[in-house]
Amino acid sequence: MIPAIAQAASATEAVTAAKDLLTLASNWVSENGMKFAASLFGAIVIYVVGTWVAGLIRSALVKTMSRRGTDQTATTYIANILHGLILVMVIITALGQIGIPTAQFAALIAAAGLAIGLALQGNLSNFASGFLLVFFRPFKRGDYIAAGGTEGTVEDIGIFTSTLSSLDNKKIVVPNSAITGANITNFSALSKRAVIVPCTVGGSNSPDKVRDTLLGATVGNSNVLNDPAPVAVLTALGENKFTMELRAWCKPENFWTAQFTLNESAKKALDEAGVTGPLPAMRIVQS
Questions:
Q1: Any idea what the CATH number is for the domain that residue 79 is in?
Q2: Do residue 29 and residue 110 come from a single domain?
Q3: Alpha carbons 13 and 7: distance in angstroms, whole number
Q4: pLDDT per residue over 216-275, tens digit each?
Q5: How many domains does the structure of the chain reveal?
Q6: What CATH number is given to the structural domain containing 267?
Q7: What is the enclosing helix (H) or strand (E) of 121?
Q8: Residue 199 near residue 245, CB atoms below 8 Å
Q9: What is the spatial distance between Cα 264 and Cα 257, in angstroms, rounded to a whole number?
Q10: Are 166 and 149 in contact (CB under 8 A)?
Q11: Cα(160)–Cα(117) distance, integer angstroms
C-alpha cells in the first residue's frame, strides 16, 4: 500500500506543477502577449523590408558599376559581398526587435565565426583566392582557360568557387584556391590564337609539294586570318617519313571551328594532290 500511496502523491505533485506552469504561461501571455506579438510582427517587417532594400542596393550597385565600365566579374563579386553584409545587419536588427540582446548575439557570432573559420580554413583560402581572381583578373567571364586541373569557358567567378563550362557542355565547379595555386592558361587573353595541324607523310614526297598543298587548304576558310599569313614548316624527320605542320592564325572565339575545318580540308587536299603516307617499317629476319 505504501508504494501506491507514494505514486499517488507523486502524480498529484506532477499535476499541481503542470497547473502552476500553465498558470504562469497564461499570465505571461495575458501580460506580454500583445507586446511580443507586436515585436514579432516588427521583426518580420524589418526582415522583409531589409531583404528588399538589400536587393535594391545590390541591383543599383551593379547598374552603377556597369555604367562606369567596371568588369562584370568584379561587379558581381562586390555586389554579392555587400548584399551578404546587409542581410547580416538586417537579421541582427530583427532579432533585437524581439528582445534578443544584439551585443551578446554579435559576440556569439564573432566567437562562432572564429571557430568556424578554424574549421573551414580551406574555404577561407578559397575566399581569399576569389578576391585575387577578381581584382588581379588573370581571366574574366567568357574566357577559355585551363586551370585547377580542368579547362573550359568561364561562366562565373564566385566567392568560394568558379564555374566553367566544358566543350561538351558540362558544368565544372572549381575551388578558387585550386586555380590560384597552380598555372593558369588563358587561351582568350590575346587577340590571335594559332591553329596547328601536324601532317606526317612519306619520305618520298616533295616538301615543297606538301607545303603548297597545305597552304592551299587554308584558302577560302573564313576562320583563318590573313595577318599573319599561314605557314607550313617541316618540324620532324624520320625514317621514310617527315612531319609538316600547317600553322594558321584565328580569333580566339573561332579556334575550335578553325581547328576542325583545317583538319578536314588538309586531309582532303593531301589526298587530292596524291601525297602518300609513310610506309610501315619493314623488318628483315635472317634465318
A1: 1.10.287.1260
A2: yes
A3: 10
A4: 999 999 999 999 999 999 999 988 899 999 999 999 999 999 999 999 999 999 999 999
A5: 3
A6: 3.30.70.100
A7: helix 121-136
A8: yes
A9: 11
A10: no
A11: 14
Residue ranges making up the domain that contains 24: 8-118
Read off the amino acid at residue 168.
Answer: D
- Per residue in 128-171, pLDDT (tens digit) is 888 888 878 899 888 999 998 899 999 988 888 899 999 899 99
| Any domain includes 239 | yes
pTM of the model: 0.60
* Beta pairing, strands 150-157 & 144-147: antiparallel
At 280, the amino acid letter reads P
Which of 33-47, 99-113, 187-201 has the highest average model confidence (pLDDT)? 187-201
Quick check: is 72 in a domain?
Answer: yes
pLDDT-based confidence at residue 287 (cuts at 50, 70, 90): very low
Q: Is residue 249 part of a domain?
A: yes
Q: Cell digits for 78?
A: 562586390
- Tell me the C-alpha distance between 238 and 258, whole Å: 28
Residue type at position 157: I
Interacting residues of 78 by C-beta distance below 8 A, sequence separation 6+: 61, 65, 134
